């Protein structure tokens, strides 16, 4: 067995106590998991202290496997260590070291002592790939950690939030919840299934109007993300009805129930979409512009109107008009990536239509910015300040995966295959500026499409 050592060391602009505490909270492992190589926490006991255990479900390519790790050492604000009990490697010992660098900064060092199975063949065939993967993963982890902690610093010394989240298991919600819990906030999830006793969850049903918030024990923030997926399947009349009602009924129910609470939440952050503006060609749009005349424009308009009961009771309400959210974990980017990786990706239609995109972690950052910034209310465009055409996006993604992009999908084929959905989602041109986010000082993690795609693919 040949032992190898991998070390990643970074300076974090935050006190060592803050960085260590972040790692000890629920959600840290989920936040540090790269979206291109996600892990599922199946079981967790004891946090990061000595004797704690965690069971993970992971994949090696398409093959799933179980990883069991045990924590073997713990020194508060200095280090914790875990080792593989069951997994694909012959040995894995991960030491997390924390070193103060004055009162406002520290060094974080991740050291991996590992060995591959079947030496020397394992090292010969997989050694380079394993080290390269570790480089990608820990570059991502340290970048994400530094950015998350920077986002949380404005709340230092303030009382933690009590946040109610709908859509907590969705693509955005599953990233938002661990972001909030690692920041020290309490999160309660609204679920359509039977609540899990070990988790803070309450049942709701927007169709029947069932939602009892009196059992929560105080909620100061509500984030409403739930809604029917608009990008799956053709828009039949039944599908369009579900899309509309899933947004209007759910929003109206939450708005009405939070308006009845005493005390009431300070803020309701409600998801909407840039589909509000419809197809506007190359015109730059801001929050001052009115709705378009497409089906999705009507949905977004009525979606936002449904929050009226909360506004009437003086609750600050923010409508997040979210653009095309990019993450390998799901959504449009996850669907586009495989064709590009095998060399059959290409532009859609003429490629001249504008895509107002945003990296998923910037959506999470914008949600948090909207929660803690009391000057924000009403519609807020949640998009990168640098929209691109579909052709520009196509060429950038092709370059990132080292594949040519000679193909194009004709508009006629899109309309035949997807009908109204294809016309409004894939062919529509919506060029949007995040005017309110910029004016209130939000700093984008990834404002440019080249850097964003490199980050999402672990190439930085």
Please describe what this structure looks like:
This protein has 14 helices and 23 strands. It has an eight-stranded mixed beta sheet, with helices on both faces. Strands 1-7-6-5-4-3-2 form a seven-stranded antiparallel beta sheet, covered by helices on one side. The protein is α/β, with parallel strands linked by helices. The chain is 35% helix and 27% strand. It is globular, with a radius of gyration of 23 Å. A hairpin with a 5-residue loop joins strand 6 (91-100) and strand 7. Helix 4 (173-182) crosses helix 9. It has two domains: 3-153, Alpha-D-Glucose-1,6-Bisphosphate, Chain A, domain 4 (2-Layer Sandwich), CATH 3.30.530.20; 159-456, Rossmann fold (3-Layer(aba) Sandwich). The two termini are 31 Å apart. It has helices spanning 16-24, 28-32, 121-152, 173-182, 237-260, 295-305, 308-312, 331-341, 360-372, 390-400, 411-418, 420-426, 435-439, 449-456; strands at 3-12, 40-45, 53-60, 63-75, 79-86, 91-100, 106-115, 162-166, 186-191, 201-205, 210-211, 221-224, 267-273, 284-285, 316-322, 324-326, 346-348, 354-355, 357-359, 378-382, 388-389, 407-409, 431-432.
Q: What's this model, at a glance?
A:
By secondary structure, the protein is an alpha/beta fold. It has helices spanning 16-24, 28-32, 121-152, 173-182, 237-260, 295-305, 308-312, 331-341, 360-372, 390-400, 411-418, 420-426, 435-439, 449-456; strands at residues 3-12, 40-45, 53-60, 63-75, 79-86, 91-100, 106-115, 162-166, 186-191, 201-205, 210-211, 221-224, 267-273, 284-285, 316-322, 324-326, 346-348, 354-355, 357-359, 378-382, 388-389, 407-409, 431-432.
